[in-house]
Structure formats: C-alpha cells, structure tokens
Amino acid sequence: MKLFSISKAVHVPKFKEAEHFSTIIDVEAPKNMVYSLSQQHNMKCSPTVKRNDRVLVNQIIGVGENNSVVPVYASVSGTVKQVTTKVDLMGNKVDVILIENDFLYEKEEREAFDYSALTFDELREKIKALGLIETQNLSNRKRGMQLSFKDDVKNVLINAQESGLYGQVDSYLYENEREDFLRGLGLVRSLYKNANITVLSTSDADSVIGFTELLKNTDVKLISKIPTQFYHDMNLASRDVFGDFAMKYTMVVDAFLLPAVARGLLDNRLTHYQLLLVNGGAVKNPGIYKVMSGTTLNYVMEAAGVEDPFRVVAGNILSGDAVFAMDAPINRGIREVLFLNENEVNKEEEMNCIKCGRCADVCPVGLQPYELNALVINRDFDEFFKNRGGMCVECGRCSYVCPSKRHLLQSFKTAKKVKR
Question: How far is CA 248 from CA 140, 220, 231, in A?
Fold first, then answer.
C-alpha cells in the first residue's frame, strides 16, 4: 500500500454515485485500546491515570484546562499499560493512553441530575462533561459541543449536511438513531421554546423522504440543499439558511451529536462509540460501522475486509486528509474513511497554475485560492493571513475543480498549522 503525504491531493477521475446504507455493523472492541489526548489544534488533555491503574467504563482518563477541551473517557474496563506518545491518523505526534481491555465492561456510576433544574451555565458544563467534540466550525475545528449552545437565540439549525462522493452518512439519524434524534429535538425545543428550529439535510431523495417522515409530528422545519462540503462549516450553513453568517441570532447544532446529547442529558448515559462510513474500491464490505472509542483503524479494516488499498483518506474525498498510520486510534469527529484502489485514483501530477479562476468561482467565502497557494509555496504566511487565508473553511472545492490538479486545500491546511 502506498500512503501519500498530507501535502498531496486525491483527484477521483469520475463522479461516483453516493451509496445509501441502512444497517449498522458492530466492530468488537479489541484487546488493546488506544485513547488520544489530543483535541483542538495544539490543545490536549492531561492524563488522570498512570501505568498499572485499573480503569472502568465511564471513568475520566484525561482532562483539559481550556474551556473548549472536553474530557476523555474509558470505553472499556481494564488496565493502563502505558501513557506514551504515538503517531495519529494524520501523522501528528500525540499523547495517548494504552489500556488492555479485560472485556468485563465494569462501569463507574455517574451522578444523577435533572437538566431542567440547572442554570444555563450549569447545563453547558453538563454538556461539556459528555466528552463530545463537534467539527462543524472549520475555523475552530474540534471543539467541545457545549460551545455551540447559547443562552438566547431566534434560530436553531440542526445541521445534518454530511455527504461525500462515496455514501450518505445521514441515514442512521432517521433510521438507527431515530428515537434518540427525536428526543434530542424535543430537548432543544424545551431549551428554546420560541426559537425557529430547522433541520438542514442533503437533497438526495432518501434523505428528504427519511427526514420528512421523521419530522412529520414535530414543529421542526426541514430544508434540503444539494450536498456541499462547505455546509460543514456552521457559519456558512447559518448564512445560507437564515442569512446570519455572524450567527448573532442563530445556534448551529451538529445533528450527528444530537442523539448523544439526548442520551447524556435525559438518561445520564455517555456515548462511547462513533458511527463511521467505510467505503471505497478496496473495501469488501462497505457500510456504516459502529466503532468503540479507542479502537484503532486496523481493526476496522479487518472487519470491513479491506484489501491492498492504494490510497486511504480520513474525512471525505473533497477535504479529507491522508492517513499516515493504520494502528492509530480513529480521531473523534471523523465520520468517513475511504480505502481507494489504484483504478479510483487519478495519478496526474500537479501542474503550473493557468490562472483560469475556477477555484475563485467556487470558493464559498470569496477567496482567491490560486493567489493564496502561491503565498504558501513562497512561505509568506503573513501575507497568506492578510489575504484572508485564515477564513478558508476547508471545503476542498478549489482542489476538486482545478484543471492543473493543484494541491490548494492541502497547502492552506499547512499554512494554518505553521501559523498555530
């Protein structure tokens, strides 16, 4: 298998119709669990356990001081084998906790509470304690879910716009997680009694039919738009639905985390798994996999029957990142991993920019990607940010339409990392 560097892009030569998956495939938690302590940018948690400690399900094993950093929980019971440094999926060195699973799943009891009796600040702390990370604010990626909740809003947007070229990820919201999703909507209504609540979905027929049937007995509106990667940025989603880019009167909630919020606030239950779309030409059994937190990617590959992938992408084909290590834990917030065979990948090399302007035409925030790319190549990062490069929402549309196969998005991600 040939992995590629983070600076390279994958250009799929032909559009592939997105598949619809209706069943969830369980991946059994392995004996050796790996928990990353890394979160937003350079922020991370500090371990609360040490080698040879026994841990229980629901036990906090990592905490952070910054408000946007949420706690890390053990999803299994067992023994801490090591607290060390490891390379994550994207090739970054991160602190990790290695736990040997004893398969007993003994739990640490959680303190009961009534969310309706809490002040709003107390409620946000309870949401933070759920350990959920949302990724829909692309200028401030991977932050605690509690930061999305505001004390007073006119509009609430439940953003279920999640679609790649290889599959629809939203189907489990109106099928497998249906009950908890509805409970989450009821929870939001109880918190914001006078707000206009709207679900934003993709416009494919399955999603429209599924969400329409799901919401028929609620007062929640449904808006469906063509699947577009830039809707994964909450500011752009708010702009296009409510005309409120600054989100002054709007709160955007990650729809894929809403069932976990409902379980956490209504049942006092933590969600220790994530649902992951696994697809691509090298996958024998594509589908949506239920993966326990702390599971490394190689176990998912084994369950999915992945054979000799030529390229591996975490995220999606437009704005995903190259996978650097298969024995790394699956980063929280990743909902799609693609294992592509050689025939699926266009191997044309990057060519000189021809100044056609296609990248500028498709940029949702009005940037000039070809100019920003030149600044990154010349390592003029100050000018990159003066020219609003920091506003890039990492949708990947510029790289996708570029006839010269320029690695535009990848260069912008590099510039942001250098600046941080």
Answer: 17, 21, 18
**Position 40 in a domain:** yes
Q: Which residue bears the tokens 């028929």?
A: 216
Query: Pairing relation of β-strands 221-225 and 287-292?
Result: unpaired
Range of the domain at 398: 358-419
Assess if residue 240 is contained within a domain: yes
Query: Which CA distances in Å does 31 have to 51, 298, 301, 398?
Result: 16, 13, 16, 42
- Same domain (yes/no): 262, 139: yes
* Structure-block tokens of residue 70: 């949420």
Contact present, 400 and 359 (Cβ < 8 Å): no
Closest CA to 133 of 26, 43, 13, 25: 43
The span from the CA of 393 to the CA of 237, in Å, is: 11
Residues 45 and 178 occupy one common structural domain: no
17 part of a folded domain: no
Cβ contact 209:222 at 8 Å? no
Name the one residue in this structure whose structure tokens are 């890390």: 72
Same domain, 304 and 200: no
The runs of H, that is alpha helices, within 55-168 are 120-128
Judgement on whether residues 39 and 165 belong to the same structural domain of the protein: no
pLDDT in tens, the chain (420 residues): 444 333 444 555 455 566 778 789 999 999 999 999 987 656 789 999 999 999 999 999 999 888 888 999 999 999 999 999 998 887 788 899 999 999 999 999 999 999 999 999 999 999 999 999 887 655 445 667 777 888 889 999 998 886 555 556 788 889 889 999 999 999 999 999 999 999 998 888 888 999 999 999 999 999 988 766 556 677 778 888 888 877 889 998 989 999 999 999 999 999 999 999 898 889 999 999 999 999 999 999 999 999 999 888 887 666 677 788 899 998 877 888 989 888 777 666 788 999 999 999 988 888 999 999 999 989 898 999 999 888 887 778 888 888 888 888 888 887 877 665
141 & 255 share domain: yes
Contact 88, 334 (CB under 8 A): no
Q: Report DSSP state, residue 16.
A: -
Instruction: Give the DSSP H/E element, type plus range, for residue 86.
Output: strand 78-87
* Best CA proximity match to 57, nearest among 72, 80, 33, 77: 77
